């Protein structure tokens, strides 16, 4: 702009210094032939896949890959955040992404082997006016919760008999800890079955108590199996509860995933709507 100003000043000085007659083809209007420069475009990511999972992004580190190639994360939506304080930014971003995920994967993403990752603009990009959130999903391994480097999209992964759905599994349990989970068809013999989830109001994952998980998972299992959620439920079924990790909890995922578990007994077929005839009182607590 300073160079443009200098050119204009020089042109004015020349006009004033002349004899007052304009050269042929010059009308004296210094700006009517200039085009307005285009507005600066703000970087905004698009749908695609990424080699790694990220919490923030900018044009400098934006490097999408083909979803046919191995990758960790897939962008399924980009939403507008608008003006929001830094303290509320992460929670708003999670809400925006969570509300859009079901339409992409074909069901509540929390009922699948999936991790939701909102990706916010970097601090410099936010200062420059970026107000978007990039919504990414990643597949998690049932065995230990680690991220899966996959090829292909997670689109419709929870629809019908989608491979990403939480269903039946063999659980390895030591004491009160689940040390491993191996998924399998419900028609095969297994020791646990996903029954549903409940949302905790605790501020951190570490603050969730065993008593709270028992109460929440018993309610989810009672609804799933069609048994009464009363003082006999602990004599009919057991439960396994899986809270999100601390980072997911901080971002806004407070849903505990609950599995029906019969103290290691083998089950065959789904126990959905099994009722009290199948889930009899057979545990005695003294």
From TrEMBL:
UniProt entry tagged with the keyword Signal: yes
UniProt-listed InterPro entries: Septum_form (IPR026004)
N-terminal signal peptide: 1-17
This protein's name: Septum formation
Record domain Septum formation-related: where: 49-258
Key words, A-Z: Signal
This protein's record includes keyword Cell division: no
Organism, as annotated: Paractinoplanes atraurantiacus
């Amino acid at each position: 702009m300073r160079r443009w100003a200098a050119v204009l000043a020089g042109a004015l000085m020349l006009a004033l210094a002349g004899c007052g007659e304009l050269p042929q083809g010059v009308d004296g209007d210094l700006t009517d032939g200039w085009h307005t420069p285009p507005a600066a475009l703000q970087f905004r990511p698009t749908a695609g896949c990424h080699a790694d999972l990220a919490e923030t992004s900018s044009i400098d580190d934006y490097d999408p890959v083909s979803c046919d190639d191995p990758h960790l994360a897939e962008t399924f939506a980009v939403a507008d955040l608008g003006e929001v304080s830094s303290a509320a930014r992460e929670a708003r971003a999670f809400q925006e992404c969570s509300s859009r995920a079901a339409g992409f994967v074909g069901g509540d993403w929390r009922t699948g082997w999936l991790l939701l990752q909102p990706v916010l603009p970097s601090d410099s990009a936010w200062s420059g006016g970026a107000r978007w959130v990039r919504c990414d999903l990643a597949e998690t391994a049932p065995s230990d919760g680690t991220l899966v480097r996959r090829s292909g999209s997670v689109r419709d992964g929870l629809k019908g008999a989608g491979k990403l759905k939480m269903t039946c599994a063999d659980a390895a349990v030591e004491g009160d800890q689940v040390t491993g989970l191996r998924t399998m068809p419900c028609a095969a013999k297994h020791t646990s079955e996903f029954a549903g989830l409940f949302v905790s109001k605790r501020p951190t994952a570490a603050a969730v108590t065993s008593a709270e998980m028992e109460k929440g998972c018993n309610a989810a299992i009672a609804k799933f199996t069609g048994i009464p959620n009363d003082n006999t439920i602990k004599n009919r079924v057991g439960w396994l509860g899986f809270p999100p990790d601390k980072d997911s909890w901080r971002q806004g995922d407070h849903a505990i995933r609950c599995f029906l578990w019969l103290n290691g007994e083998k089950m065959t077929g789904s126990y959905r709507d099994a009722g009290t005839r199948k889930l009899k009182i057979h545990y005695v607590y003294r």
